[in-house]
Specification:
mainly alpha, two-stranded antiparallel ribbon, 13 helices, 1% strand
């Protein structure tokens, strides 16, 4: 068998056999996105003029806000919240003096004279505006007791495909859209994905405990032993320097030495019900983290 395939199977199995070792998933706040990605998804929109023309466009039903019995400031606040929601499916905290360019665009577009009758809107008016936005777009608030179990269940199923947190996050985002609910906060996604990953670890650990003999476990953990200050698995990860007879003999020795581990992996991987992509991700962690990380 090609060494790369053998290494992938061994690495994947070794990673999943770390039953009592430290886990890269166990952290209070799982790092999923970069600060730039978080900013892009969750910061208040900074609209261009072209975007203002698009997102502050009111249909016939939405235009009824213009003749409602409220102040111009409240109407402008409502239209801004509606535009922001259309762009990012969430609400933002702001005062009108913080979004002057958006205020000016709406005043010039919908009001004559283009002036505010007051400079601020109260909390109650803002809450009412958010309720109005939800009615206009047909969305609902994010009810934790209702939707977290749905997202968590989906996240657990996604772990069978891949335990890459970014993959799970993007898939959950895609699920939220057709539910027509306010986009959950980043910290909510972090908690859901962390919980799903830990549940997946427990599921895999249970299967390994049931189907790995003590002898097989000892064979696997020998990869973490040291020979002349070099970990066995480190030697296995190295590619041959050339195709000379000495290097070829070394490759044959590796094959003979680790063939049994490959057989263990072939037997266990179907029981784990982990996708090929999931196996590749587990294997990649062996390349990413040093052996001492696990001790």
């Amino acid at each position: 068998m090609h060494r790369a395939i053998l290494l992938e199977n061994i690495q994947g199995n070794i990673k999943m056999s770390q039953i009592n070792l430290k886990s890269p998933f166990k952290s209070n706040r799982l790092n999923i996105l970069t600060s730039i990605e978080i900013e892009d998804l969750y910061s208040r929109p900074q609209l261009t003029e072209e975007e203002r023309a698009l997102f502050f466009e009111l249909d016939q039903e939405e235009q009824k806000i213009l003749v409602s019995n409220t102040s111009n400031a409240t109407k402008v606040d409502a239209i801004i919240r509606l535009g922001y929601f259309k762009k990012k499916q969430q609400f933002f905290q702001f005062d009108l003096n913080e979004v002057e360019d958006d205020v000016k665009h709406i005043l010039d577009r919908y009001f004559t004279p283009a002036t505010l009758d007051k400079s601020t809107t109260g909390i109650k008016a803002k809450i009412n505006n958010q309720k109005w936005v939800l009615r206009m777009v047909g969305y609902k608030s994010f009810n934790q007791s209702k939707y977290i179990p749905i997202l968590l269940n989906k996240a657990k199923k996604l772990c069978h495909l891949s335990t890459d947190p970014i993959f799970i996050f993007r898939e959950l985002l895609a699920i939220v859209a057709p539910l027509k609910i306010i986009r959950p906060g980043y910290s909510t996604f972090q908690k859901i994905i962390s919980h799903a990953l830990m549940s997946e670890q427990k599921r895999i650990s249970k299967i390994l405990q049931e189907h790995l003999s003590s002898q097989e476990r000892s064979q696997l953990f020998k990869l973490l032993s040291q020979e002349e200050n070099i970990y066995t698995i480190t030697l296995l990860k190295q590619q041959p320097k050339n195709f000379k007879s000495t290097a070829i003999r070394q490759e044959i020795e590796y094959y003979e030495q680790y063939h049994k581990l490959h057989q263990i992996a072939k037997r266990l991987l179907p029981l784990l019900e982990v996708s090929k992509k999931g196996v590749e991700y587990y294997a990649s962690l062996v390349l990413t983290f040093l052996v001492k990380f696990y001790w």
